[in-house]
Amino acid sequence: MRAIVFAGPGSWSLEEVPDPAPGPREVLVRVEAVGLCGTDVHVLDGEFAPTRYPIIPGHETSGVVEAVGDQVGDIAPGDRVSVDPTLTCGECRFCAVGRSNLCEEWDGSGVARTNGSTAELTVAPVRNVHRLPDEVDLPLAALIEPLSCAIHGYDLLPRRMGEHVLVYGAGTMGLMMAQLAPRAGAASVTVVDRNPTRLAAAREVGIERVLTSADDADQIGGWDVVIDCTGAVAAIEDGLRRVRRGGVFQQFGVAPADASARFSPFAIYNDEISVVGSMAVLHSYGRAVEMFAAGALRADRMVSHAFTLDDYGDALDTFRAGSGRKLQIRPQAKVSSVLL
Ligand SMILES: [Zn+2]
Ligand SMILES: [Zn+2]
């Protein structure tokens, strides 16, 4: 099969590699779409510590089952599926207490040790393969993996009705966190981004308060919930200052591992501010499939480009230029297309 291979930091190529074969409890999937994500670029740039090279990137996957192992009975060839990339040991102290996203042997296919799905075919354990309801658009279903991360983010926030939510960043994750806020009971949601193209995307998915700076919002006393989806230190420092007394700040965006941000310990103490991290997926994949099928996202306004495997370099260039919305690779496609 044809696959993108990251040989080492900064080095990638489109190669002919052997087809993967499913083990007894594994499923072989013909990849329809795979989202290109900031994590893929960190992996390519050698900035993601768990990565072992060479690796086929790609962890936001939808496709059609091609074959199944001889002990798989509940998924069959022809099923349309979404693939959870999370691989955990099931044995360490974190797995034992139900926090397997913090597993000591944590592996994400396409980002850590196991090959991912920027390829014609990919293989996954049957427990990671989720059948899609008929009404779900197959290529757009590659948004289910990031949606499952967003749902995990909300799982970690205190659940109170009628709160005001501020989201930094109108990329894919920011748009998802903002779209989920009303479903989590928010009285209002405000999205801040410096990039006007991204702010237009936020308006298109239905966010009413879309600003280039939180200074422009008339929000006396701050926000009950502030979520950083940028990983940018300036945004994080700004956001920490805008949490209302008794409120919560969530670090959702991926900052460089050596970055540090300044905050006021006095404000954390005196205003009883909670700071919560959220990493990847935990028990949220099946719910993401159901919420996606129920229309929780304006998915049709979120995917802007579909690239062929041959045009992977163009996809990387488009990503690094910060243009477009969610970019996808469609390994079965013959020509690349601009969707939005
Ligand atoms: Zn991702
Ligand atoms: Zn574990």
UniProtKB/TrEMBL annotation:
SUPFAM superfamilies: GroES-like, NAD(P)-binding Rossmann-fold domains. InterPro entries: ADH-like_C (IPR013149), ADH-like_N (IPR013154), ADH_Zn_CS (IPR002328), ER (IPR020843), GroES-like_sf (IPR011032), NAD(P)-bd_dom_sf (IPR036291), Zn_alcohol_dh (IPR050129). PROSITE patterns: ADH_ZINC. Residues 10-329 form the Enoyl reductase (ER) domain. Its cofactor is Zn(2+). Pfam families: ADH_N, ADH_zinc_N. The keyword Lyase does not apply. The keyword Transmembrane helix does not apply. Keywords: Metal-binding, Oxidoreductase, Zinc. Belongs to the zinc-containing alcohol dehydrogenase family. This is Zinc-dependent alcohol dehydrogenase family protein. The lineage of its organism: Bacteria, Bacillati, Actinomycetota, Actinomycetes, Propionibacteriales.
